[in-house]
Design a protein that fits this description.
By secondary structure, the protein is of the alpha+beta class. It has 8 helices and 4 strands, in the order αββββααααααα. A hairpin with a 4-residue loop joins β3 and β4.
Amino acid sequence: DDATRAEVIRVGNAGTMAMGAVHNPRYVFATADASTDYRGIAPLHYEPVDELRRSDGERELITLSADFGPGGLVGQMYGLVLAEQGEDLPDDVGAAANAQAVLAALRRFHDDDALSTNPLAAADGSVADRADGVRATVRAVVEGTFGSSPGDQRLREAIVRAYLDPDGGHGIAQRELHMSRSTFYRHLQKARDRLATASPGPDRR
């Protein structure tokens, strides 16, 4: 049942944290069964990595990823506790939460349902309107983050082609930038980190 499943997950997560070399991870990747409903972990901003979908012969598997921001997993939990108590996040934690929201919006940029529940979405309006509002915010952050230098323009191009363009994707962006897979993903992470530091503060929501 759900209670038993939750306890198993709790013990497993605790064991992973205790045995891991990083006790407050920022980036987390987990393999999961595609048939399971993961909407309950939406506040943690886990997102499926579509290019890592696969099968082990019996199950369809997905890889979930999360970027918990500069505060790591502990900071994420702290923010959730404050939210449950109706308390506002301190400015630095609020900025980190907005950075995570921008990165989450990138990964689901063409999914109206996901964007409409993103923390950057307006409280009112239709699903499509709220999603379009988040897209506009993300595009503004992208345009405001990268300058006119060749290096900045390549970072911008990686974000736009990997996430924003309907006909784009990671593989397409990699080929168009003429980079090896490892170089491209390092380049894309650098671009994502730049976006995170330039993300809108709490007052822009």
